[in-house]
Design a protein that fits this description.
Blueprint: E1 8-13, E2 17-22, E3 26-32, E4 35-38, E5 41-48, H1 49-53, E6 63-66, E7 69-70, E8 73-74, H2 77-92, E9 102-107, H3 113-124, E10 130-135, H4 136-144, E11 154-159, E12 164-170, E13 173-180, H5 184-199, E14 201-202, H6 205-215, E15 228-235, E16 241-247, H7 248-271, H8 275-284, E17 286-289, H9 298-306, E18 310-312, H10 319-329, H11 331-339, E19 343-345
Parallel strand pairs: 1-9, 9-10, 11-17, 17-18
Antiparallel strand pairs: 1-2, 2-3, 4-5, 4-6, 7-8, 10-19, 11-12, 12-13, 14-15, 15-16
Helix pairs in contact: 2-3, 4-10, 5-6, 5-7, 10-11
Length: about 350
Amino acid sequence: MGVFSTGGVGIDLGSANVTICLENEGIVLREPSYVLTLRDDIDEIIAVGRDARQMLGRTPRDCTLISPVMDGAVGNIELTTALLKRLAEKALGKRRALEKNRLVVSMSQGATRVERAALEEAVRTTGARRAALIRTSVAAALGAGIPIEEPRGSMLILIGGSTTEVCIMSMNGVVAARAMRTGSLALDEAIMRYIRREKKLIIGQRTAEDLKIDLGTAVSNPNLSRDKVALRGRDAISGKPATVEITAEDIHKAIMPPLEMLVENIRDAFENIPPELAEDILPQGIYLSGGGAQLEGLSDRLGEMLKLNVMVHENPQDDVALGACLAASNDRLAQKISLSGCLIEV
């Protein structure tokens, strides 16, 4: 009997969001990676996911909002297990949802042995009938339809919430990889700092993320100053509620420092590719995946810098969950990936 047979569930356990994909149904749920607990007893869980995120910046004094997964690693095993269980129950619409299913959960390429052990424990205690971990980059490649089973190198850049992975894959495995502890959440923090410094207005992370999605772009153009929104927050000097006008140009200026650092890290990783693999990559270009790939103009900026064609799947934020679900649903595929060491049963 192989690793898996039927009835697969794939979960992208990210620092920003948890995405769940079901066999024959596709993506059924995407919710923030937050857990709301009592401050004096974090085992007393009040809400998870979207319900918990709605309390971001609004939590009562006796409650605390925790993100149990940060920088691609599990920070709290019990809360991570609770997050996975409750969101799986919501996705499948029943209690103890995973006890009859095969589960595959994503694991960051840069996870240390200790971080991997914590993730294994969290996944093992979800109650799934069979469970495994899959390298995030391999899952993203499967979900995006990249032909990694061929004996030639394919390069993928995966930009998540707080991690970025640059990987070259061949024969269903990772040939070379580099993981960085930075991602799209760094852009949110940069927006918050910029608006406080330049506009003297204090805003929360939710507002910063909305600004990034609505106005953020990686390329500059003369029309950026025309896109304007009225932004509400707290005056940094008086402490009173205030409203200021923000343009797309402001957001572009805010995100450029962390974006330039991210792009430079990607270029540095690319320049250290072995010559034989570079020969494979030059004709076909590179693939961009993850939630961070949705930033307007990012693929164009990377393509211009690397002088390569940069391709983005239609829904790059879904790639990892789709690939994990494929591995959970296809026994033959799971066996091939496990032979390369990129899928590990727990």
